[in-house]
Write a structure and sequence with these properties.
By secondary structure, the chain is of the alpha/beta class. It has a single domain, classed as Rossmann fold (3-Layer(aba) Sandwich), CATH 3.40.50. It is built from nine helices and eight strands. The chain has helices spanning about 5-10, 20-30, 50-60, 70-85, 120-130, 150-160, 170-175, 190-210, 215-235; strands spanning about 40-45, 60-70, 90-95, 105-110, 130-145, 165, 180-185, 240-249. Strands 1, 2, 3, 4, 5, 6, 7 and 8 form an eight-stranded mixed sheet that branches. The chain is globular. The structure holds S-adenosyl-L-homocysteine. S-adenosyl-L-homocysteine binds near residues 46, 68 and 70.
């Protein structure tokens, strides 16, 4: 089994595959000034197993297309939708976020939590803009520096992992350059990382190792997760996900 398939096994039974929370979905919706009486057409891009998709479906009327590259994540979301009676509202689509079969100006809202980095923030927000109606909303979370300066070890690490990492002001500039008006933004809190993402992930290591513990790649993935969590705990005052709520002009 290759690294991707192993990662899928490790993450597929978790509610989230990145930091976030129900409270912050609500805050983003408030900043977007959505009208809960209206029906919206929404795309949730890089939805994973759909932790945030289900929250959106609970809070908004209309239709959500939940997009991910990996069918296994979407299968889990589909079973969850059946259990919650949400299958009519949430449709899944297995596709890559940089090659979407959507029509121009099809969506009122494009939502994407912790996922756009896969193709890069600048590329993603520019490409997705075509699919948003004029006046429609882009709500996107993205790894961001939350202070003006930071230790060199940290800066070097993230520049190596994701060269587009930037300050909140830098991310806002990229959105403005792409023709969006930023309606609001906030920083994800520690519980979004630890309680909602890292702790469930560390808990799923046990079962994962019981199944795949003889595999060197599986052991490496577990080791890498542990290091990532330690790194987060050490440097959490300097980086987080910024959540940006922007309107297409
Ligand atoms: N939004 C979810 C998942 C974030 S993890 C959450 O916050 O919990 C990032 C997601 O992006 C994963 O589900 C991964 O499968 C998906 N992904 C990675 N590359 C992708 C691509 N090119 N197109 C679509 N989805 C992709």
């Amino acid at each position: 089994m290759d690294e991707m398939e192993l990662m899928m096994h490790l993450h597929r039974n978790n509610k989230r595959q990145g930091p976030g929370s129900e409270e912050f979905v609500s805050l983003a919706l408030r900043l977007a000034k959505v009208d809960t009486d209206k029906s919206y057409k929404i795309a949730d891009i890089g939805c994973g197993t759909g932790g945030q998709t289900v929250v959106l479906a609970e809070k908004l009327k209309g239709e959500i297309i939940a997009v991910d590259l990996f069918g296994e994540f979407l299968e889990n979301l589909e079973s969850c939708c059946k259990e919650e009676n949400m299958s009519a509202q949430i449709k899944t689509l297995e596709a890559s976020m940089d090659s979407l079969p959507f029509d121009k100006e099809e969506f009122d809202i494009i939502w994407s939590e912790g996922a756009v980095y896969n193709i890069g923030f600048r590329k993603g927000i520019n490409y997705w803009k075509d699919f948003i109606k004029p006046g429609g909303i882009l709500a996107v979370s993205e790894l961001s520096w939350i202070t003006n300066s930071r230790p060199k070890e940290l800066e070097d690490f993230w520049n190596g992992e994701y060269s587009e990492i930037d300050t909140v002001a830098g991310k806002i500039r990229v959105l403005e350059e792409a023709g969006y008006k930023v309606l609001g933004h906030f920083i994800l809190s520690e519980d979004c990382w630890l309680d909602n993402y890292y702790i469930p992930l560390l808990e799923s290591h046990k079962g994962f190792l019981e199944k795949f513990g003889d595999d060197e790649t599986a052991k490496m993935i577990v080791e890498r997760d542990i290091q990532e969590v330690d790194f987060y705990k050490k440097y959490k005052d300097y980086y987080s996900y910024g959540f940006y709520i922007a309107q297409k002009l």
